[in-house]
Specification:
It is built from eleven helices and 13 strands. With 322 residues, it is of the alpha/beta class. The protein has three domains: 118 residues, 3-Layer(aba) Sandwich (D-Maltodextrin-Binding Protein, domain 2), CATH 3.40.190; 81 residues, 3-Layer(aba) Sandwich (D-Maltodextrin-Binding Protein, domain 2); 74 residues, Double Stranded RNA Binding Domain.
């Protein structure tokens, strides 16, 4: 059981829980370094999650058995049992509603939220020849890209970033789609050819953002993390997650939601597509600073539902998006 400091900003002794993937460890160490720079003692505990244990299965094999919080459940159990003091997640992996004992203590400044076109031989998505193979297991990515290029083959592609890049270099696909932020964090941008704009490929809610989760009653750790919280990022991702929740979505549906600062306040864009890409609804709202982020997200969801999103969401397979 950990024993964080009694008062902040006095230095604390903190244990971070993290998945064991290369990207997850980069993210956890990134936060650990910032905490150590403020005099805190920080250690890491690697926790294997249900999602990690299922990495060898295709999403077609997993199907409807995908559990809620497949990449977070075991980490939250360690947090609840006080074996760790905080968890560093990719925000898009978190369910839109946290269980009552937990809080998002900090959401640091967001990295590039876009999806990236990654290829050895092709300079951009438009240059792909008809019949080219695109590696992605994300239903969200597949659905939106099929709407642009229905003449391509979309093939199952799982594994961590290095595994997917290796498969690409070995010719298992002509191109793959990955989150730009992950490639940049790991310094693996050599084959990054194009960053998709949100109006072409709308990112997953929370993509590019980290979430630092704590116990709601752990005021010392929450105070120690306060300096990491970035308010514009928190506003944007709160609106995105509110829209996703209002649409009844999680990581299992082809919904893209992206909110970003604008001259007037924030602009939020959402898209819902059928898996084959033949039908898509999209909406964009501009927002003044006065409105709350949850209200903005709910307003976007209502607009998408008015345009027919509900019928697209009713009969979808429950495969993870990303």
């Amino acid at each position: 059981m950990t024993d964080p400091c009694a008062l902040s900003p006095e230095p604390c002794s903190l244990v971070i829980g993290s998945r064991g993937s290369q990207l997850a460890l980069w993210q956890a160490n990134h936060i650990a370094d910032q905490l150590r720079a403020r005099g805190n003692e920080v250690s890491l505990e690697i926790i294997r999650t249900t999602g990690d244990a299922m990495q060898h299965l295709t999403f077609a094999q997993v199907g409807a058995s995908v559990p809620k919080g497949m990449f977070t459940k075991e980490i939250e159990e360690a947090l609840y049992d006080r074996r760790i003091d905080l968890a560093v997640h990719s925000l898009k992996d978190l369910p839109t509603a946290l269980d009552e004992p937990f809080s998002l203590a900090a959401i640091p400044a967001r990295a590039d939220p876009s999806d990236a076109f990654v290829s050895v031989n092709y300079e951009n998505f438009a240059s792909l020849h008809s019949g080219a193979r695109i590696g992605t297991s994300s239903l969200r990515r597949q659905a939106q890209l099929r709407a642009q290029r229905g003449d391509l083959q979309y093939v199952e592609f799982r594994g961590n970033v290095d595994t997917r890049l290796r498969k690409l270099s070995e010719g298992e696909a002509d191109a793959i789609i990955l989150a730009t932020a992950g490639l940049e964090r790991l310094g693996r941008t050599g084959y990054l050819r194009e960053r998709f704009p949100a109006l072409i490929l709308c990112p997953a809610a929370g993509q590019g953002a980290l979430a630092i989760e704590t116990r709601s009653d752990d005021s010392a750790t929450i105070e120690a993390l306060a300096f990491l919280d970035d308010q514009p990022t928190r506003f944007a991702v709160t609106a995105e997650r509110a829209a996703l929740a209002a649409l009844g979505g999680g990581c299992q549906v082809p919904i893209g939601i992206h909110c970003q600062p604008s001259l007037e306040g924030f602009t939020i864009t959402g898209s819902v597509a059928s898996p084959d890409g033949h039908r898509m609804v999209r909406a964009t709202l501009d927002h003044q600073h006065r409105a709350a982020p949850v209200a903005l997200g709910q307003k976007l969801a209502a607009r998408l539902l008015e345009q027919g999103a509900a019928s697209l969401l009713q009969s979808l397979p429950t495969f993870p998006m990303d």
